[in-house]
Backbone:
């Protein structure tokens, strides 16, 4: 089982922190316009949110695993709901590598695997080095072509 | 025929424009309509004519080509092998004029891939049978030579090893499989509840009160209806009791209207339902005012579902639906009725013949699951009580503790949810049953599995339970949800997870050899 690059935690923390900032701004706005929210309360709420975010990111990093098995891409992830997903190679429609602005700064990249399904239609593996992402994309593509079946949909 | 198309296109566009213009302008000044509507009409007619001249389609040897667009051009080629279903619909005016709309669906994408507005009836029929013929032809040319098996007479005798690559005279008149009889239609209409119909009464009320807007926000008849039961005459300065009565009476009215409009909607949509087969395709026809017809290729069917609500179960009836990856003509998702309503044993037999799987011998999740639902519903009931308490604090509501009555419903609710859960791990299929109010028994051929996921929430982990989600290719639907086996032992879940994956692989190998689609067209 392969785990993600440790720097992914920074990405998740950054994202969470952004949400916390938005929450803080919302609270301040509420304070200004509607009812008075004590500054201490705002501080406590935001600090609590930040702690949660960090704990969540650390835990998520600990549980995130993926593996290329002989017939499928297998992933394990989730803090609140733990999900084990198998994506058979035959079902892979196409594979992307993506990276957003924060990911670029951190030197990370994601691989997104698309299937024709309805619920887990796109499976994202975040927190890969660009090299690993590219090689994974390559491997998945080869495996998908190799196992190509008669028309799935 | 061409003139007819042009006429209808030219006409219907401005009608639409006039209607939009009128409703928008209404709020500003009604007088504007008189000079805006003609402008809208002319612009619409102009656009319609331009659209008509810029629209072209062709049915070629291996694709359907459609090019369209007045301002920005788009041309699209759809390979036959990718076509999911072809639907033809006709509104009342269109039936009078003898024209129809043809929609061609493929998997993926947000909506219908190609819509041919207003072709003549014969042309629609020709396009459909042509697409069916050519789809079959491309499938045959890629299939192995032994795929062609002769004869259709002996097929129904062996539903288990069923694939039927026979196409006796392509485009031949379809063999009838099922016809919805009047009593079945009536039963279906009266026993199915479409929540979507709840907006009909609202629209009606809006429409009616639009003309005499003197009663304020709440129309007068709402008060009139509630008054005999102790409702208030106005909304100003009344105590909470009469308001509750008003709300209750209005809700009853609303539900009755919703029920009636839902029944009318169902009758109008499923009147004269007929299902047949033509080659390897299902063909259907239905509708009273608006006619729908179409074809569903059997090898595009992803899963088969038996749907039944408590009332239908009581009467011993059920419906059979198939799901494809395309979009249905009116439901907005890929599920289409093959048998809207029939006696339960008949539906079960159909499902059995269609998939070769027997929807019986269900296994239940462990009793621990029931305890979980008990706790879940008890928490929900507690929330209701707390809400009532909160309401009592801010309003004149007394005896909030009477809300505790909801706790009585908790044990039966938990039990019913548990009792309706079931699954069968078959040789070729996974059968999943779930739901009390809308019980669905879904048969998924292993061959159709896209992804398998074992999910465990915090609470499930504590109880060592897991839910197994089996995803198939289908349009994103929020109404039906992904087939899931809820709350089974973690060990069992892992086992089924592995089994599904293995059987997907072996089914793929088998299929590559025999070209078996695992579904029988002749299911009745």
Residues:
């Amino acid at each position: 089982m392969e785990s993600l690059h440790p720097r992914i935690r920074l990405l998740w923390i950054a994202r969470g922190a952004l949400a916390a900032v938005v929450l803080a701004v919302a609270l301040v706005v509420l304070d200004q316009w509607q009812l008075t929210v004590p500054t201490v309360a705002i501080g406590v709420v935001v600090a609590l949110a930040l702690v949660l975010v960090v704990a969540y990111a650390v835990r998520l990093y600990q549980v995130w695993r993926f593996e290329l098995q002989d017939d499928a891409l297998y992933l394990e992830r989730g803090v609140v709901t733990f999900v084990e997903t198998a994506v058979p190679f035959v079902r892979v429609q196409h594979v992307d590598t993506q990276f957003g602005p924060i990911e670029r700064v951190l030197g990370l990249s994601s691989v997104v695997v698309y299937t024709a399904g309805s619920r887990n239609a796109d499976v994202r593996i975040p927190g890969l080095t660009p090299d690993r992402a590219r090689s994974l994309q390559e491997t998945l593509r080869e495996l998908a072509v190799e196992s190509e079946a008669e028309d799935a949909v | 025929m061409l003139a007819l198309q042009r006429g209808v296109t030219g006409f219907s566009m401005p009608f639409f424009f006039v209607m939009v213009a009128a409703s928008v302008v209404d709020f500003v000044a009604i007088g504007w309509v008189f000079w805006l509507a003609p402008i809208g009409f002319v612009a619409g007619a102009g656009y319609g004519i331009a659209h008509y001249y810029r629209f072209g389609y062709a049915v070629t040897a291996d694709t359907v080509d459609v090019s369209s667009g007045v301002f920005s051009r788009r041309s699209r080629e759809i390979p036959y092998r990718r076509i999911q279903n072809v639907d033809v619909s006709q509104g009342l005016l269109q039936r009078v004029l003898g024209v129809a709309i043809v929609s061609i669906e493929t998997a993926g994408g947000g909506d219908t891939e190609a819509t041919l507005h207003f072709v003549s009836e014969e042309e629609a029929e020709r396009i459909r049978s042509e697409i069916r013929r050519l789809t079959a032809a491309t499938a045959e040319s890629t299939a192995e030579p032994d795929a062609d098996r002769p004869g259709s007479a002996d097929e129904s005798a062996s539903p288990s090893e069923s694939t039927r690559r026979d196409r006796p005279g392509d485009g031949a008149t379809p063999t009838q499989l099922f016809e919805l009889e009047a009593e079945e239609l009536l039963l279906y209409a009266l026993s199915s509840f479409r929540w979507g119909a709840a907006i009909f009464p609202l629209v009606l009320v809006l429409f009616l009160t639009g003309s005499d807007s003197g009663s304020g926000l709440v129309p007068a008849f709402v008060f009139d209806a509630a008054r005999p039961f102790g409702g208030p005459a106005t909304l100003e300065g009344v105590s909470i009791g009469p308001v509750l009565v008003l709300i209750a009476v209005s809700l009853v009215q609303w539900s009755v209207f919703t029920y009636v409009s839902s029944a009318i909607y169902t009758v109008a949509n499923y009147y004269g339902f007929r299902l047949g087969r033509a080659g390897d395709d299902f063909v259907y026809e239905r509708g009273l005012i608006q006619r729908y017809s179409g074809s569903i290729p059997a090898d595009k069917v992803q899963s088969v579902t038996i749907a039944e609500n408590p009332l239908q179960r009581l009467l011993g009836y059920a419906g059979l639906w198939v799901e494809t990856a395309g979009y249905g003509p009116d439901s907005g998702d890929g599920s289409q009725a093959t048998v809207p309503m029939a006696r339960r044993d008949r539906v079960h037999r159909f499902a059995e013949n269609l998939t070769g799987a027997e929807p019986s011998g269900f296994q239940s999740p462990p009793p621990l699951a029931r305890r979980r639902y008990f706790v879940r519903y008890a928490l929900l009931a507690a929330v209701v009580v707390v809400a009532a308490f909160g309401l009592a604090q801010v309003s004149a509501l007394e005896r909030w503790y009477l809300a505790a009555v909801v706790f009585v419903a908790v044990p039966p609710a938990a039990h019913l949810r548990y009792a309706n859960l079931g699954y069968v791990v078959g040789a070729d299929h996974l059968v999943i049953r779930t739901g009390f109010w809308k019980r669905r028994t879904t048969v998924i051929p292993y061959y159709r599995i896209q992804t398998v996921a074992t999910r465990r929430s915090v609470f499930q982990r504590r109880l060592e339970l897991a839910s197994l989600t089996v995803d198939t290719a289908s349009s994103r639907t929020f109404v039906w949800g992904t087939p899931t086996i809820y709350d089974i032992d973690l060990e069992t879940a892992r086992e089924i997870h592995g089994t599904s994956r293995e059987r997907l692989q072996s089914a793929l190998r088998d299929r590559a050899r025999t070209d078996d689609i695992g579904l029988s067209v002749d299911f009745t």
Chain A has a mean pLDDT of 88. The interface with chain B takes residues 71-72, 78, 80-88, 90-91, 115-121, 123, 149-153 of chain A (CB under 8 Å).
